[in-house]
Amino acid sequence: MQNAIVKALIKEEQIRLYFIDNSQLLRDIYALNQELPKPLKLLLGKTISAMSILSGTLKGNQRMSLQVTLSNTRHKIFAEAEANGNVRGYLNEELLRSSNIEEKSMQDLIGPSGMIRVIKGSEMNQFTSITDMPNQHITDDIANYFVQSDQTPTYLYSDIQLDKGGSLLSSHALYAQLLPGAPPQLLSEVKMIVKANPDIFSKLNAEEASDSEEALTQLFGDAKIIGHSSSQFFCGCSKEMFYGMLYSLSEEEIKRSIERKEDIEAFCHICGKTYTFEQKEMQQLF
């Protein structure tokens, strides 16, 4: 089931474990970023993949916003997830324009002093945390955020397969978190099982919930599926959202566009849509 988060309890209900086949979600993201070199595809893909499964941990109208600042502080990754499963994200222009990307690994791109900033909660109750990236790895360091910020041992795993041409073959993610009172070594056992089963997602992603539960039981000893939720790409931008950009322009810039009979275009970095503000709109604004 693509884009469906399967939620389960394992290890005598001491670990919360979620997994997802988010291949379609990433195909939607990559369709908007077709010219990305492979290292940036993986960097963006693993960020989006992690956020897609973390959307399943949110409740009500909660939202989680992520900003990854690489060691080159001009290079940033943005992503956001909502409790309804909507996920979006993009790389900033400075990172997109950086050189020699093809030759770099994820570790090289992140560097030794990357930072993660997370804003989480509802509109009325948000909190912000900033953590470092000691692993120089997107999913490992997002998991590290939970350890540093929430003092909750967490494991995140993202498996993205690209062909030689950089096209997406498949994308899956897994999230495991200790529940209160559970012994820490249980999470280490989960990591070992995942690493020892490279085909784990082919076993878990069954059409029937009972088959997934059976596969979980075979892998982890016992399991109980407790629910499902969806995760999908959704931008939500509109032309009205970009009026603020127009108001930030000086009178001289607006007047110059009117005199030259030039329309002004606003580009959404998330979904790739372009909104055009025509002469009539510019004159009304002026």
Give a topology summary.
Blueprint: E1 4-10, E2 15-21, H1 23-31, H2 38-54, E3 63-69, E4 76-82, E5 86-91, H3 93-96, H4 106-110, E6 115-122, E7 125-132, H5 138-150, E8 154-162, E9 168-178, H6 185-196, H7 200-204, H8 209-220, E10 223-230, E11 232-233, H9 243-247, H10 251-259, E12 264-267, E13 274-277, H11 279-285
Parallel strand pairs: 5-11
Antiparallel strand pairs: 1-2, 1-10, 2-9, 3-4, 3-6, 4-5, 6-7, 8-9, 12-13
Protein name: Hsp33 family molecular chaperone HslO
InterPro entries: Heat_shock_Hsp33 (IPR000397), Heat_shock_Hsp33_C (IPR016154), Heat_shock_Hsp33_N (IPR016153)
Keywords: Chaperone, Cytoplasm, Disulfide bond, Redox-active center, Zinc
Could you describe the 3D structure shown?
The protein has 286 residues and is of the alpha+beta class. A six-stranded mixed beta sheet has the order 7-6-3-4-5-11. Strand 12 and strand 13 (274-277) form a beta hairpin. Helix 1 (23-31) crosses helix 2 and helix 10 runs antiparallel to helix 11 (279-285). The longest helix is centred in the first third of the chain and has 17 residues, at 38-54. The protein is elongated. It has helices spanning 23-31, 38-54, 93-96, 106-110, 138-150, 185-196, 200-204, 209-220, 243-247, 251-259, 279-285; strands at 4-10, 15-21, 63-69, 76-82, 86-91, 115-122, 125-132, 154-162, 168-178, 223-230, 232-233, 264-267, 274-277.
